[in-house]
Design a protein that fits this description.
Strand order of the largest sheet: 3-2-1-4-5-6-7
Order of helices and strands: EHEHEHEHEHEHHHE
Shape: globular
Largest sheet: 7 strands, parallel
CATH superfamily: NAD(P)-binding Rossmann-like Domain
CATH topology: Rossmann fold
Number of helices: 8
Length: about 250
């Protein structure tokens, strides 16, 4: 997809998992990267891998719950690369558990790292995208918000549904600036999901039986490549949607 070559993407939570997979897929298409994460060593490793594919990659320490950190990464990215074309809001602290067990602090951390960080960073990059004639924002949602059994997923589902609502609003408000805003809801081989599978074998077995394709997505090949496609001109008429990258499991209708 030569049309993406030379563009710039800012990705949060890029040190591992889905964020890393998306970063490497974009790097393979010639997209320069600003990679943000709480642990600088992890994003530095992702940056090294990306640079091995011939692009420039900048590793940035960032706690997405801190407004000042988000302002810094947006400013540094725009200054170092001359603008921002793609934003991937991936970082998220996950508040799982029964409602009586999840603390206010854990719920607030999920909200601050998810929809609030997404809200802030979308607004920060918007003027840079508008100045370039448009851009693509990809927010990470989840099918947790529409599970058939919401027990232990209520708080996590709540923050992810808030992200979906913000995605729809941004798509509606910024479409005339050629800024497309999408959400993806992936099942992927992230460290968190692998841990859950190992520690909940019976529930994991039942979980896999609900996926028509019978497997979870590969980080770069399935999730990353899908994001590449979403950022390209072939899908330039798509905005405001939630795309379930989950092997056919969820029903967002």
């Amino acid at each position: 997809m030569a049309e993406l070559r030379g563009k710039t993407a800012l990705i949060t939570g890029a040190g591992q998992g889905v964020g890393k997979g998306i970063a490497l897929a974009l790097a393979s298409e010639g997209v320069n990267l600003a990679l943000a994460g709480r642990t600088l060593e992890k994003v530095e490793r992702t940056a090294q891998l990306a640079e091995g594919r011939g692009v420039r990659a900048l590793a940035l320490a960032c706690n997405v719950r801190a407004a000042d950190d988000l302002e810094d990464v947006a400013e540094i990215t725009a200054r170092e690369f001359g603008g921002i074309d793609i934003l991937v809001n991936n970082a998220q602290e996950v508040p799982l558990g029964l409602l009586d067990e999840v603390s206010d602090e854990a719920f607030l951390a999920g909200f601050e790292s998810g929809p609030l960080a997404t809200f802030r960073l979308m607004k920060l990059v918007r003027p840079h995208m508008a100045a370039r004639g448009g851009g693509t924002i990809v927010n990470l949602a989840s099918s947790a918000g529409i599970r058939w059994d919401m027990a232990t997923y209520g708080c996590y589902g709540a923050v992810k549904q808030a992200t979906r609502a913000l995605t729809r609003a941004a798509a509606s408000e910024w479409g005339r600036e050629n800024i497309r805003v999408l959400a993806i809801a992936p099942h992927a081989e992230s460290p968190g999901l692998k841990w859950w599978i190992e520690n909940n074998p019976e529930e994991a077995d039942a979980f896999f039986r609900t996926i028509p394709l019978g497997r979870i997505g590969r980080l770069e090949e399935d999730i990353g490549r899908a994001v590449v496609a979403l950022c390209g001109s072939d899908l330039s008429y798509l905005t405001g949607a939630t795309i379930p990258l989950d092997g056919g499991q969820a029903n967002f209708d």
